C-alpha cells in the first residue's frame, strides 16, 4: 500500500475506556461530543474485560456489560461497542491495548478520551510516556469528581455515574433516560443490580 493510500484509509478513532456497569447518558454524551468536536470517524466504548480498579465489589460479567454497551450505541452514528480488550481476557494495561491496536489495526489513529477522574491517574499508569506517544489524549470535565486535571474538550456536564445508577436500581428508582431503553431492558431481563444473584 502506498503512503497516500495509507493516509486515505486512516481512521480517527476515539477510545472511551471503562467498565460500563452499566453504560449511561454521561458516557454517550461524552462520546457523541468528542466525535463531533475532534472530527473522529468513530468512538469506541472500549469495555474493560476485567477492570483493575474495581475490586471492592462484584463487577458484572464482561459479556453482559458488552451486551449493554452494544444496546447503548444502537442508533448513534459512529459509536461502536468494542470487545477489543476481551482477547486475551483478563486485566489490560492501556499501553498494551494501544500497542495491540497499532499492530492489528494500523489504519487506526487513536485518541484516548478520559473523564477528569480517570485522567487524574494517567501519570501513574504503566508506561505512561508510551501511552502519550501512542495516542492523542482528550480530557473532559466531570461534575463532582474533584479532579484538578484541566479539560481539553468541553462537553455538557452531567452528574451521572454507573455507581448512582446501580444504587437507583437497588432501591427501585427509575433509570429511564439516564440509560438508553435497550440498556434499561437488559438490566431488567438479566436481573442486574437488584440485590439478587445478578447484582
Ligand atoms: P462507576 O461509577 O462504576 O465508576 P462510571 O460512571 O465512572 O462508573 P466508568 O465506566 O467508570 O463509568 O467510566 C468510563 C469513562 O467515562 C471514564 O473515563 C469516566 O471518567 C467517563 N465518564 C463516566 N461518566 C461520566 C460523566 N458523567 N461525565 C464525564 N465523563 C464520564
Ligand atoms: Mg468510574
UniProtKB/TrEMBL annotation:
Keyword Nucleotidyltransferase recorded: yes
Record pathway: Cofactor biosynthesis; NAD(+) biosynthesis; deamido-NAD(+) from nicotinate D-ribonucleotide: step 1/1
Alphabetized UniProt keyword annotations: ATP-binding, NAD, Nucleotide-binding, Nucleotidyltransferase, Pyridine nucleotide biosynthesis, Transferase
Reactions this protein catalyses: nicotinate beta-D-ribonucleotide + ATP + H(+) = deamido-NAD(+) + diphosphate
Top-level taxon in the UniProt lineage: Bacteria
Record bears the keyword Phosphoprotein: no
UniProt-listed Pfam families: CTP_transf_like
EC number in record: 2.7.7.18
InterPro entries: Cyt_trans-like, NadD/NMNAT, Rossmann-like_a/b/a_fold
Entry's Gene Ontology molecular function annotations: ATP binding; nicotinate-nucleotide adenylyltransferase activity
Any one GO biological process: NAD+ biosynthetic process
Domain Cytidyltransferase-like intervals: 15-168
NCBIfam families: cyt_tran_rel, nicotinate (nicotinamide) nucleotide adenylyltransferase, PRK00071.1-3
Role according to the record: Catalyzes the reversible adenylation of nicotinate mononucleotide (NaMN) to nicotinic acid adenine dinucleotide (NaAD).
UniProt family annotation: Belongs to the NadD family.
Protein name: Probable nicotinate-nucleotide adenylyltransferase
Lineage: Bacteria, Bacillati, Actinomycetota, Acidimicrobiia, Acidimicrobiales
Encoding gene per record: nadD
Amino acid at each position: 500500500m502506498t503512503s497516500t493510500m495509507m493516509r486515505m484509509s486512516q481512521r480517527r478513532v476515539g477510545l472511551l475506556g471503562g467498565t460500563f456497569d452499566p453504560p449511561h447518558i454521561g458516557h454517550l454524551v461524552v462520546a457523541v461530543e468528542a466525535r463531533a468536536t475532534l472530527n473522529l470517524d468513530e468512538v469506541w466504548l472500549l469495555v474493560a474485560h476485567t477492570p483493575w480498579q474495581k475490586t471492592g465489589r462484584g463487577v458484572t460479567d464482561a459479556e453482559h456489560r458488552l451486551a449493554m454497551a452494544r444496546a447503548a450505541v444502537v442508533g448513534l452514528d459512529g459509536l461502536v461497542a468494542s470487545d477489543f480488550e476481551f482477547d486475551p481476557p483478563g486485566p489490560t494495561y492501556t499501553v498494551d491495548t494501544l500497542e495491540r491496536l497499532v499492530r492489528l489495526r494500523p489504519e487506526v489513529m487513536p485518541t484516548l478520551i478520559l473523564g477528569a477522574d480517570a485522567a487524574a491517574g494517567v501519570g501513574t499508569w504503566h508506561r505512561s510516556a508510551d501511552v502519550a506517544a501512542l495516542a492523542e489524549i482528550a480530557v473532559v470535565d466531570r461534575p463532582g469528581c474533584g479532579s484538578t486535571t484541566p479539560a481539553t474538550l468541553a462537553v455538557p456536564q452531567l452528574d451521572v455515574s454507573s455507581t448512582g445508577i446501580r444504587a437507583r436500581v437497588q432501591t427501585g428508582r427509575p433509570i429511564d433516560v439516564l440509560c438508553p431503553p435497550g440498556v434499561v431492558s437488559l438490566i431488567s431481563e438479566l436481573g442486574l443490580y437488584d440485590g439478587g444473584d445478578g447484582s
